[in-house]
């Protein structure tokens, strides 16, 4: 049966008939990134895939999980693999917006104000425990995420083009947290949770930790060539979305807005991000068009961050939505 | 389509399988399936004979240039067509669409007939059109007879054409041609037999006759024969489709042979009765049989006897009344009725058994219905004398109900509990020479549209109304309101039936009858039976069960009164003897009784199409009535085979009766019931198969008409097959997920490969930006999928794994599984590297 899985994967590669050679190369590079990340975060291929999807869709990622599950490792490895800079902001209640965006200080030597860049000026920013920061700091970060620029002392500073935020938050019910308001959650493309690895994967992890040689694997050099990420993001934008798929998304939107148990339905921005996520997923799956499977697969991470539902219910409700919207036949 | 870098990567096992698959497909094609030249030649020969026979029948002894020209054209077209078709198939291997053309060829005969009748004012009779349609089919099939299946059909239809032609035509030539056809047929049979044998020896053809191919036609034939043999109407209808000498009542200006009522009508001079009623027939002088003739026609003429003997049998005052009757036979409807009749054998008129004469009138409403026309109370041993009309009558009164004038009569329903609810019947008189309205007992209203004057009506025989004119108007509906008798409630009312004084006409038993024997019989019948209705019912039932209805029976000797011979000797006789016997037995027990003549609206004659019951000449009937209270009467139907009307049934009673009637019908036609049940069972058990065949046929049709939707239609077909067997598919399951499930649970290499390819094609066709252009590879893939993923394949799949259970979590399970496989595949490499230092 494995033979056929291979066949199928190859057959799916064949769907990218319109792919230019550079598209194929881009995909190959991303496959390598994926495999590097998989080797680092063992047993979580779907998480790795979704992280990449989020990156390709120019979205930002919210990881909600317990400490010590490899969030930082993943962010660092991602930064390395895409060849960008990595920075980290540990959010605490006393963290000020300037600590995130940067601040100007007076240089006494040349009598000028000098702008000291904050951690947002990296390619990949890990905002750890974002819900422990004060709302003021949170909103500063969220503005940077949305606009890809920061304004300090009336001076506008552009952020990196491939600026990507991986924010983590503790589960809501822990003490000393400022939960992110829904309006702000909407700026994240996805919410993921890594979860504990399976026993076998954990065993592999323990084993590899005892081997000296394996340690270097984590360090690695960048995989993506310069400008690859931008090209890939442009290629994702060009992935074809049939009108029936767009209507399928709109059906979800309508349903979420009229659902009795959802008090905040899907926003137009949410729909846009969802469509882009589907495109990215299709791109990663070597397709140049989106299928309903992509929509369904992206539904949970995309919807769970932005639907106004009780936290514990989100998976159930997303599943309910998926079950009750009719899949488009595509032949009409 | 599939780019170049994919093909080499497909595992060798699969590609090998594909090759073998293709080889088996291509091997069963082309020349092996064609028939030999000799058998085709024989077929063409047989077809030529059939065409010749058809031409002779159509020509009808007029063989002109036109005849030979048409014949030559047909035969040469057939031969040339057959030759070029054979060449085309042998050399080019093209498989042409023959069947639609054949259907068109067959229909063209009908179309041409329509055009011809409409514009050219000439036409052919039905049998010739049928023959022409079949001739066209034969020509078309003969052209395609290079293939075995059309060849066999050609021969079968040619045979039909020849036999049909021989039966239709009087030309001697057709008989010779039929003989030649028989010889040619034998040669063709032997040639095609050896051809078959040699083909089978080569092992190329698997003869697989599905059981249903044999079973279904047999069942259909059995059921068809059953339907025809048990249903007169079906048989009549069928006769109309076959060439016959008329008799269905239709006439067509295009007909050629047979007796019809069209222009070629042959005047009947020998036997008038051998013709159906025809309006403009020259021999019909008087089409209105008088009422008296009606009874004589049915019961034969009475035998005249010395009347003085009979008068002696009555008390003196009643004897005077009898005499009075004998002398004044003025009004024909008011005559006495003699139970001594000529026997049918002495009749001068030949009786033609298979002629149905027209109805006298029609009855709308519930039947069986006893329509009374004359009431007799005085019996002298031979004849019944009409009951005297009352001299003083209440004047008639017209009331209006729903804007309709109704003649209001005495309604006994207000006094008697044994009467059912009021209901109406309508009579439509066609052919009845009487001014008395035939009406049921307990009539309480008469309505004839626009007749709103009471002086239009007059009193008829007791309980009856007549119109003040010579006879009833034809074709005018006469509505009658009446009440039926609730037979069950009679049982509870013991004292209704008062014993009568013996000196009245309604209770006298003539002395020329053996009174003792009569009393003995009556006592024997009613031994231990309660007085009242039970006794009456016992006599009625006794006569119905112990005596046989025989309309042709006549008393053997003239010495003993007929009713005595009927009661004690023959135990069989006509209905008036039953009525007489019942009346006499009742009188012997002390009940007042009388006899009524009239019509019996037979429920067996009920015509469900028009919702009418025709009353024919044969429906004249006699029955008895017994007196209840002082003035009212109750029907006593002693003749077997005749039923009385009860009150209208309630819903449950009706439903129950329907069920019982249905069960009885099934038991009566048990052979056909079993055949039909088996057929239904077979249809039921193979319903999935039949539905699937129909859908597959539709799919094939769309393959041809809408090739750009082939992939979509194939997916639809597969889903329909799955739903026929398994649970319904959820709306939220994408085809990708569904096909992935099938792939995951399927264990056969070939189907898996095909489904993978189909899944990819569907993704591209449905959601990509590429146009759906029909592509030979895609078409082949879809055909292969249709052949591989059959209904039985789905059966096997669903029996092995209940997909419905797995479907619950299928949304992510498979993709995750695949992703896992994917990542494993990729992570294996570095691990492999590290394991080798």
TrEMBL record, chain A:
Domain of life according to the entry: Bacteria
Alphabetized GO MF terms: ATP binding; ATP hydrolysis activity; DNA helicase activity
Domain ATPase AAA-3: from-to ranges: 60-190
Keyword Aminoacyl-tRNA synthetase attributed: no
Record domain ChlI/MoxR AAA lid: where: 256-308
Pfam families: AAA_3, AAA_lid_2
Keywords from the UniProt entry: ATP-binding, Helicase, Hydrolase, Nucleotide-binding
Enzyme class: hydrolase
EC number: 3.6.4.12
Similarity field: Belongs to the MoxR family.
UniProt-recorded name of the protein: Holliday junction ATP-dependent DNA helicase RuvB
Organism the protein comes from: Thalassoglobus neptunius
Gene: ruvB_3
Automatic annotation (TrEMBL), chain B:
SUPFAM superfamilies named in the record: Cysteine proteinases (SSF54001)
Comp. bias intervals (Polar residues): 826-837
Pfam families: Transglut_core
Residue intervals passing through the bilayer: 41-59, 65-85, 97-116, 128-146, 153-170, 176-197, 209-228, 670-690
Xref: Gene3D superfamilies: 3.10.620.30
Spans annotated as Disordered: 805-837
InterPro entries: Bact_TGase-like, Papain-like_cys_pep_sf, Transglutaminase-like
Entry keyword Membrane: yes
Domain Transglutaminase-like: from-to ranges: 567-640
Keyword Transmembrane recorded: yes
Keyword terms: Membrane, Transmembrane, Transmembrane helix
PANTHER family on file: PROTEIN-GLUTAMINE GAMMA-GLUTAMYLTRANSFERASE
Protein name in the entry: Transglutaminase-like superfamily protein
């Amino acid at each position: 049966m494995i033979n056929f899985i291979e066949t199928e994967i190859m057959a799916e590669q064949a769907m990218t008939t319109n792919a230019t050679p550079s598209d194929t190369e881009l995909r190959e590079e991303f496959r390598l990134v994926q495999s590097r990340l998989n080797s680092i975060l063992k047993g979580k291929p779907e998480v790795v895939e979704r992280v990449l999807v989020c990156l390709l869709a120019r979205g930002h990622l919210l990881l909600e999980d317990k400490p010590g599950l490899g969030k930082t490792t993943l962010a660092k490895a991602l930064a390395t693999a895409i060849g960008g800079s990595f920075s980290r902001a540990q959010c605490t209640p006393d963290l000020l917006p300037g600590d995130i965006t940067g601040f100007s200080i007076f240089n006494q030597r040349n009598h000028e104000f000098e702008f000291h860049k904050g951690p947002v000026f990296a390619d990949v920013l890990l905002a750890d425990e974002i819900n422990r920061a004060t709302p003021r700091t949170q909103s500063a970060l969220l503005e940077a995420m949305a606009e890809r620029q920061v304004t300090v002392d009336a001076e506008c500073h552009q952020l990196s083009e491939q600026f990507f935020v991986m924010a983590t938050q503790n589960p809501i019910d822990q003490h000393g947290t400022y939960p992110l308001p829904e309006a702000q959650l909407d700026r994240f493309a996805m919410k993921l949770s890594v979860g504990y690895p399976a026993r076998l994967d954990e065993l592999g992890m323990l084993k590899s930790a005892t081997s000296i040689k394996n340690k270097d694997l984590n360090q690695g050099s960048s995989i993506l060539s310069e400008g690859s990420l931008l090209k890939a993001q442009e290629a994702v934008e060009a992935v074809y979305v049939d009108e029936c798929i767009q209507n399928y998304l709109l059906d979800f939107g309508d349903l979420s807005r009229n659902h009795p148990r959802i008090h905040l339905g899907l926003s137009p921005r949410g729909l846009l991000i969802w469509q882009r996520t589907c495109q990215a997923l299709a791109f990663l799956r070597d397709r140049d068009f989106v299928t309903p499977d992509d929509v369904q697969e992206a539904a949970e991470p995309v919807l769970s961050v932005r639907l106004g539902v009780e936290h514990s219910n989100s998976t159930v409700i997303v599943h309910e939505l998926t079950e009750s919207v009719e899949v488009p036949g595509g032949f009409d | 389509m599939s780019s170049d870098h994919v093909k080499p990567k497909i595992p060798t096992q699969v590609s090998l399988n594909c090759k073998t698959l293709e080889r088996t497909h291509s091997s069963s094609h082309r020349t092996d399936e064609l028939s030999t030249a000799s058998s085709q030649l024989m077929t063409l020969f047989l077809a030529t004979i059939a065409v010749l026979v058809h031409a002779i029948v159509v020509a009808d002894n007029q063989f002109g240039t036109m005849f030979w020209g048409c014949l030559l054209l047909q035969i040469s077209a057939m031969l040339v067509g057959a030759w070029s078709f054979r060449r085309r198939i042998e050399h080019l291997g093209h498989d042409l669409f023959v069947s639609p053309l054949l259907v068109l060829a067959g229909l063209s005969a009908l179309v041409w007939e329509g055009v011809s009748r409409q514009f050219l004012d000439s036409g052919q009779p039905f049998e010739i059109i049928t023959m022409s349609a079949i001739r066209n089919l034969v020509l078309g099939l003969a052209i395609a007879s290079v293939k075995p299946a059309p060849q066999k059909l050609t021969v079968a239809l040619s045979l039909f054409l020849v036999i049909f032609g021989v039966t239709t035509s009087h030309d001697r030539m057709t008989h010779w041609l039929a003989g030649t056809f028989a010889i040619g047929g034998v040669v063709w049979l032997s040639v095609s037999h050896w051809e078959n044998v040699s083909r089978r020896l080569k092992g190329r053809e698997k003869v697989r006759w599905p059981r249903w191919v044999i079973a279904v036609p047999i069942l259909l034939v059995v059921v068809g024969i059953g339907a025809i043999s048990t249903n007169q109407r079906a048989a009549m209808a069928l006769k109309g489709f076959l060439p016959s000498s008329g008799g269905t009542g239709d006439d067509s200006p295009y007909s050629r042979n047979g007796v019809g009522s069209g222009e070629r009508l042959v005047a009947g001079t020998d036997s008038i009765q051998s013709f159906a009623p025809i309006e403009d027939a020259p021999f019909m002088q008087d089409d209105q049989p008088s009422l008296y003739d009606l009874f004589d026609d049915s019961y034969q003429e009475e035998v005249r006897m010395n009347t003085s003997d009979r008068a002696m049998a009555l008390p003196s005052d009643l004897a005077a009344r009898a005499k009075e009757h004998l002398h004044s036979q003025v009004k024909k409807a008011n005559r006495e009725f003699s139970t001594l009749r000529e026997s049918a054998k002495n009749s001068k008129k030949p009786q033609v058994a298979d002629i149905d004469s027209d109805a006298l009138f029609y009855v709308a409403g519930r039947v069986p219905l006893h329509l009374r026309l004359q009431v007799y109370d005085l019996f002298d041993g031979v004849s019944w004398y009409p009951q005297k009309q009352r001299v003083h009558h209440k004047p008639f009164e017209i009331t209006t109900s729903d804007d309709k004038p109704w003649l209001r009569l005495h309604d006994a329903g207000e006094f008697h509990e044994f009467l059912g609810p009021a209901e109406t019947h309508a009579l439509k008189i066609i052919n009845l020479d009487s001014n008395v309205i035939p009406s049921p007992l307990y009539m309480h209203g008469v309505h004839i549209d626009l007749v709103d004057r009471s002086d239009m009506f007059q009193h008829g025989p007791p309980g009856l109304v007549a119109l003040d004119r010579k006879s009833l108007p034809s074709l005018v509906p006469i509505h009658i309101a009446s009440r039926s008798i609730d037979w069950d409630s009679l049982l509870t009312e013991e004292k209704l039936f008062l014993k009568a004084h013996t000196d009245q006409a309604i209770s006298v038993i003539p002395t020329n009858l053996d009174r003792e024997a009569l009393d003995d019989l009556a006592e024997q019948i009613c031994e231990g039976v309660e007085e009242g209705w039970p006794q009456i019912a016992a006599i009625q039932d006794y006569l119905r069960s112990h005596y046989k209805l025989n309309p042709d029976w006549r008393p053997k000797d003239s010495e003993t009164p007929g009713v005595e011979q009927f009661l004690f000797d023959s135990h069989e006789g006509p209905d008036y003897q039953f009525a007489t016997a019942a009346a006499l037995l009742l009188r012997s027990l002390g009940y007042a009784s009388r006899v009524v003549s009239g019509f019996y609206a037979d429920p067996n004659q009920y015509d469900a199409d028009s919702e009418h019951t025709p009353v024919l000449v044969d429906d004249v009937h006699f029955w008895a009535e017994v007196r209840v209270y002082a003035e009212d009467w109750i029907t006593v139907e002693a003749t077997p085979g005749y039923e009385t009307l009860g009150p209208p049934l309630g819903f449950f009673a009706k439903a129950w009766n329907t069920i019982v009637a249905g069960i009885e019908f099934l038991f009566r036609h048990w052979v056909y019931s079993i055949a039909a049940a088996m057929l239904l069972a077979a249809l039921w058990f193979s319903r999935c198969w039949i539905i699937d065949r129909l859908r597959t046929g539709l799919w094939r049709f769309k393959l041809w008409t809408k090739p750009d939707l082939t992939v979509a239609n194939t997916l639809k077909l597969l889903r329909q097959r799955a739903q026929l067997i398994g649970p319904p598919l959820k709306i939220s399951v994408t085809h990708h997920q569904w096909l992935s499930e099938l792939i995951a649970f399927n264990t056969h290499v070939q189907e898996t490969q095909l489904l993978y390819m189909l899944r990819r094609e569907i993704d591209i066709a449905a959601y990509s930006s590429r146009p759906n252009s029909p592509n030979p590879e895609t078409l082949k893939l879809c055909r292969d999928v249709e052949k591989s993923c059959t209904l039985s394949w789905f059966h096997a799949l669903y029996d092995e794994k209940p997909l419905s259970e797995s479907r619950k979590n299928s949304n992510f399970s498979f993709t995750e599984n695949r992703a896992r496989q994917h990542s494993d595949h990729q992570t294996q490499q570095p691990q492999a590297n590290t394991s080798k230092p």
